[in-house]
Amino acid sequence: MDAVQSTVSLLQEADVPQRDMKYYMADGSCVLRVGNTLFNVHRTILSRDCSSFGTLFTLPQGDIPEEGTSDDNPIVLQGDTPEEFRNFLWSLYALPHEIMMVRGQQVNLNCLIDIAKVASKYSFKSTETWSLDAIQEYIERKPSPILSSIPLGFPFATNSPSSPLLESKHQISRLVRLAQMCGHTKLLGTMIALLRQLMSTSLHFSYLAMSLADELDLRELRGLAYLEVLQRSVFICGGDEDGNALVEGEVHESADGLDRLVVSPAQQLRLLSGYHRLSKAWERLRALPIQFEHAPSCGATWHQHGCTQSWTEFWKEKTRADGVLSLSAANVLGRLGVILKEFDKWGSATYMHHDCKSAARRAIQETIKRINEALPGYFHEGGEY
């Protein structure tokens, strides 16, 4: 019985909010509760920048005791952590020399992310813009501080990723979500470009890119991320051979050189759909040479039928070449890339007009571009197969 009472007492004590060491100010005029922490700051500070707090403070209270006047009746903020809100308050109270340090050599990126996140939530527009610009400036430094923070030489697949790798994944996720939430197009574009780089270094980042693309509906990232996973791994879903549940996102090494990535049922269906659609797309391309418009000079000074025949024979030969067939049937972009290289090696074709060769090359490049742009559409469940 004593043990039960002791446990209940400890739980009650744990639920009692604690005053923040730094931002519970003796002369504060507004008490806020974030998680289990109390902050006491100035209403005039919180009302700046046309924030939502300014609107909140002007609402009539009626007969209800005014919130924020005491520890017993604080304004309760949901969805933030004490650390996030503490970092945000720092941006409101910091001195000029402290603000300048943010753009120095030592930047606390997580602090800036917290500031931007909370500022966006409560409509502190100028603070949000300042913090996002500071993040963008930091991300664009050379060499890239994000890439530099990722451990070099970590295994391509591991069941126990190193802490720096986990921290990098977490930080990248926060930055992508922040850029999307705030509508910061430049930061989002920078992070997507960074993820594209990282996808080729580790399946962990390919999975991260794939999951973020699904969560945030990032079309420009989805196709490439799914294609990368499709080409570089064997994807598995559910449990292992012994019936043990598998954790989504885990990468398991295998003796055959292809690593096994645990994906969700929805992701598995999208990957299989993408493989099927891309394989069919290749079969259509292989069967019929890419069309191009003959140059006017071809019909006037050249035997156009011979020009077409030369192109058709080249296409039939190169689509069956070892370099093409060594790639997966779904790797349409890779196969077209090989054909383009072979075309550049072709030299002067006896029966193909020079201007038509340039037109044919452009047609291959345009096909690659068109498939690249349409790539996200291949990886979706439902529709035609």
Descriptive keywords:
385 residues; alpha/beta; Potassium Channel Kv1.1, Chain A; 4-stranded mixed β-sheet; 8% strand; elongated; disordered N terminus
Can you put this structure into words, describing what you see?
This protein is α/β, with parallel strands linked by helices and 385 residues long. It folds into 3 domains: 15-102, 2-Layer Sandwich (Potassium Channel Kv1.1, Chain A), CATH 3.30.710; 145-263, no CATH class; 284-378, no CATH class. It is built from 18 helices and 7 strands. It has a 4-stranded mixed beta sheet with strand order 1-3-2-4. A hairpin with a 2-residue loop joins strand 2 and strand 3 (37-41).
How are helices and strands ordered from N to C? HEEEHHEHHHHHHHHHEEEHHHHHH
- Rg is 29 Å
Briefly note the structural class of the backbone.
Answer: alpha/beta
> Shape from CA axes?
elongated
Biggest sheet strand line-up: 1-3-2-4
- Major sheet characteristics: 4 strands, mixed
Mean pLDDT over the full residue set: 87
InterPro entries: BTB/POZ_dom, SKP1/BTB/POZ_sf
Protein name: BTB domain-containing protein
